[in-house]
Automatic annotation (TrEMBL):
The keyword DNA-binding is annotated on this UniProt entry: yes
Family recorded in the similarity comment: Belongs to the type-I restriction system S methylase family.
Pfam families, per the entry: Methylase_S (PF01420)
Keywords, alphabetical: DNA-binding, Endonuclease, Hydrolase, Nuclease, Restriction system
Name of protein: Type I restriction-modification system, endonuclease S subunit
Lineage of origin: Bacteria, Bacillati, Bacillota, Clostridia, Peptostreptococcales
Organism encoding this protein: Peptoclostridium acidaminophilum DSM 3953
Keyword presence, Nuclease: yes
Length: 385
């Protein structure tokens, strides 16, 4: 295995061809919200009609890299002609110096990502400039080694994809598990809350950047709220106990339901697990501490993620750029709830599916971690910085 030192602009071109969404025949739009951390496959997309302003024209095989907040590790490879967010960097491998199938894996490595974070500029929304990245030097293995590394990384990806397909199948079963209940009662969301405290149906806290700290109390963000699942992420944020007291924050406790009032989709919710630390949440999340004598948290969370519920929340949402629903409007929405015994019986059935989902997701994370460790080891042998 041999390495050669190369500037990044020897490895890739930065594509800057602009497209106006309203004037193109291209029907796929990839924004930063469609990119997943540590996944080259772009599973979701939007339409050009959904966005305004000039975008970047990308071709199949191009790399879309989230140049803002590089610590989120958002990077994907296009499988079709598309337009990409102007907040991304569209890169095209220079085949004469690097294999196009190797470059995205190299960019997923800690070696590249740590450098990307280091050269980002700005505090609130750190961004990478092409002229800065272009000058960065990396030790790149010979093409034969690149090919072998790419083949190994592709095998990791295929394993992840197999588990992802299982997750999709389990989610489909989960979504279709609803049965007809007898003697349901119509209940507003705010009336699900415990009656013994005025903080049982309340928005989270407005936490500005100046109040963040390196440890202390965990800030649960909107991105942690999935469709009936808690999504733990690497970009964790914290505040101190002193800040908690100063701002009179509301504590989020294990078993609470957090409802995200911000797209996408508006109204999604999950039961908060025990993370082993004190927690608060962001202002765009509503904390629901349910009355456990009448309602089962897992059952209620299930209802708050059905297609019917999410469509209802969307109907009452407002906003031109990002849709959100007010807590007042959210609290007045209603659901049909059976007896507590029926709720608990149903929750036990769907818990089996949720456990299988968690096992598959854990397997995915283990494979991704091994992949990251492997690629970093394989390419770091020639790095001298």
């Amino acid at each position: 295995m041999s390495f050669s030192e190369m500037r990044f602009d020897q490895l890739a071109d930065c594509i800057t061809t602009k497209v106006k969404p309203q004037e193109t025949n291209i029907n796929v739009y990839y924004g930063l919200e469609h990119l997943e951390a540590d996944s080259l496959k772009i599973r979701n997309s939007g339409a050009p009609s959904d966005v305004i302003g000039e975008k970047i024209h990308a071709l199949p095989g191009d790399i879309i890299f989230g140049k803002r907040r590089a610590y989120q590790r958002k990077l994907g490879v296009t499988d079709c002609e598309c337009i990409a967010s102007a907040h991304s960097m569209v890169l095209r491998a220079k085949a004469e110096t690097v294999l196009p199938e190797f470059l995205p894996y190299f960019m997923q490595s800690d070696l590249f990502m740590e450098r990307a974070i280091m050269i980002s500029e700005g505090s609130l929304s750190p961004t990478i400039k092409w002229k800065t990245l272009a000058k960065e030097k990396f030790m790149i293995p010979d093409k034969d080694t690149q090919r072998k590394i790419a083949e190994l990384m592709r095998a990791f990806d295929e394993s992840v994809e197999a588990h992802c397909n299982t997750v999709l199948a389990l989610r489909a079963i989960y979504s279709s598990s609803r049965i007809a209940f007898t003697d349901c009662t119509t209940v507003t969301i705010k009336d699900l809350a415990r009656p013994d405290t005025d903080k049982s149906f309340i928005d989270g806290d407005w936490i500005e950047a100046e109040y963040l700290s390196k440890k202390g109390i965990r800030l649960i963000q909107t991105g942690n709220i999935g469709i009936n699942e808690f999504i733990d992420k690497n970009d964790q944020k914290w505040i101190s106990e002193a800040t908690f007291d100063l701002l009179r924050c509301t504590e989020v406790e294990p078993g609470d339901i957090l409802i995200c009032r911000l797209a996408d989709p508006v109204g999604r919710a999950c039961v908060i697990p025990d993370l082993g630390t004190k927690m608060i949440t962001a202002v765009d999340c509503t904390i629901l501490k349910i009355d456990k004598s009448k309602y089962d948290a897992d059952f209620i969370a299930y209802l708050l993620n059905t297609d019917e519920w999410l469509a209802l929340c969307k109907r009452f949402s407002r906003g031109s750029t990002r849709q959100r629903i007010t807590r007042s409007a959210l609290g007045d929405l209603t659901i049909q709830v059976p007896s507590i015994d029926e709720q608990r019986a149903f929750a036990k059935k769907i818990a089996i599916i949720k456990d299988a989902l968690l096992a598959e997701q854990a397997a995915i994370e283990k494979i991704k971690a091994l992949k990251k460790e492997t690629i970093t080891k394989l390419i770091s042998g020639g790095d001298t910085q």
